[in-house]
Design brief:
alpha+beta; 24% strand; globular
Length: 86
């Protein structure tokens, strides 16, 4: 019996996760459509959460340089200015 690896999913199959700081200085991680997210005490924990939620794909994480608040109402934050972590 030959074992076959499953095909890798393309990046397009994954949602972007935005990370950044809110007005109080807390770190925020939020999926682009507001389906999931959270508040974190530091950047490392926000990135760890984002990676765990999105298949460990660094290229799907976008760090925002502007402040943004956790909003689970399915509103996508503007990605300008932003930088991808990959």
């Amino acid at each position: 019996m030959k074992l076959v690896e499953p095909p890798l999913r393309s990046t397009a199959a994954f949602s972007l996760i935005f990370i950044g700081r809110n007005q109080r200085g807390d770190w925020v991680a939020q999926e682009q459509n507001g389906r999931y997210g959270g508040l974190f005490v530091n950047r490392a924990q926000a990135i760890k959460y984002a990676l765990a939620e999105n298949g460990h794909r660094r290229e799907t994480i976008v760090e925002l340089s502007r402040k943004f608040e956790l909003d689970m109402g399915a509103h996508s934050p503007s990605t300008i200015p932003a930088r991808r972590l990959a």
